[in-house]
Design a protein that fits this description.
heterodimer, A: alpha+beta, Arc Repressor Mutant, subunit A, 3-stranded antiparallel β-sheet, two-stranded antiparallel sheet, 5 helices, 5 strands, elongated, B: mainly alpha, 77% helix, 1% strand
Chain lengths: 105, 209
């Protein structure tokens, strides 16, 4: 999967993170150690299907680690950012900050 | 990379959401209530059993009622440590109460130094400072401003006991403040239950997924 997209001279935007819903998910996972599906759903205001779809894309990019388990015979899924995901989010922040800082005021 | 103010704010909001349920307020209120009832009925052991019985009960309520509604998250470094601190603090509050009773019983003896006599005379204020201060420290540690108000309320009530020449007793003050805090916690809990419905994760392959 091609993660980066050439959007102009010297500017590469990570499209996996850049999508608004995934950016919200990644930001929430960045500030915690790990969170379950319900917690993410409540905080980023996505439906199960949407959340699941975006997390699959983040997982395919190697940015999140998803652990499924059964607690008292009920499914329970925990999600955490991988070190690559944390680094990618940091890089994305730097790129966006540089982009906006460089814009003529 | 340093966190931006927006990320710090996000982290704080996510963290505070885990306190919306009011269970901690109920726990603090019940602890003070148990002290108050223990003093009035002279069943001092009542407060000593609240923490070992109450904390596992609280965890069970959280697992059955809170987690299915808002899910669960584990926090990093500083937050994780502050949760350990607040649990130690609750245990410390119970312990400090027991120590104060032992201390005052010792201070009534003739061999006690004079400063102990002063502390004994105003021990209600000392308890207010210890517990009120502990609540304020807890409020600072978990960034929950209402704990400052609880600390001030408790200190004010106990200073009132010290100044009062009527039959207003330490036990009455603790019951009053404990009941107020527990009721606030209960109110928060009811609001929480109404605001957040139960969510169950769909089983893989089910049509809900």
């Amino acid at each position: 999967m091609s993660r980066k997209h050439e959007d102009g001279p010297g500017l590469q935007i990570d499209r996996v993170i850049h999508e608004p819903a995934r950016l919200l998910i990644t930001a929430h996972l960045y500030v915690v150690e790990s969170a379950d599906y319900i917690f993410l759903m409540q905080n980023v205001h996505l439906t199960w299907g949407n959340l699941s779809s975006h997390l699959s894309k983040l997982e395919a990019a190697g940015y999140v680690e998803i652990t499924k388990e059964f607690v008292e015979r009920k499914p329970h899924t925990m999600v955490k950012l991988t070190p690559e995901g944390r680094a990618a989010f940091d890089a994305y922040r730097r790129q966006m900050k540089a982009l906006f800082d460089d814009l003529p005021g | 990379m340093r966190r931006s103010p927006a990320l710090q704010d996000l982290e704080r909001r996510v963290w505070l959401r885990t306190f919306e349920h009011g269970l901690w307020d109920v726990a603090i209120g019940l602890l003070l209530l148990s002290f108050g009832i223990g003093i009035l009925t002279q069943f001092y052991w009542l407060a000593a059993i609240v923490v070992p019985v109450g904390l596992p009960a609280m965890r069970d309520v959280a697992r059955r009622i809170i987690v299915p509604r808002i899910g669960q998250a584990t926090f990093r470094g500083r937050r994780k440590r502050s949760m350990v601190r607040i649990q130690l603090l609750l245990a410390g509050l119970a312990f400090a109460g027991v120590v104060m009773f032992l201390f005052t019983s010792f201070a009534t003896r003739d061999v006690a130094p004079t400063w102990m006599a002063w502390v004994r005379h105003h021990f209600v204020i000392v308890i207010g400072l210890i517990w009120g201060g502990a609540l304020a420290v807890a409020g600072w540690a978990v960034q929950l401003p209402r704990l400052y108000a609880y600390g001030a309320l408790l200190l004010g009530a106990l200073v009132g006991v010290d100044l009062s020449s009527t039959g207003y007793h330490l036990g009455h003050a603790l019951i009053g403040v404990g009941a107020v805090i527990a009721m606030i916690g209960l109110g928060l809990f009811i609001r929480f239950i109404r605001r957040y419905p139960v969510h169950l994760e769909p089983i893989e392959g089910s049509p809900d997924e």
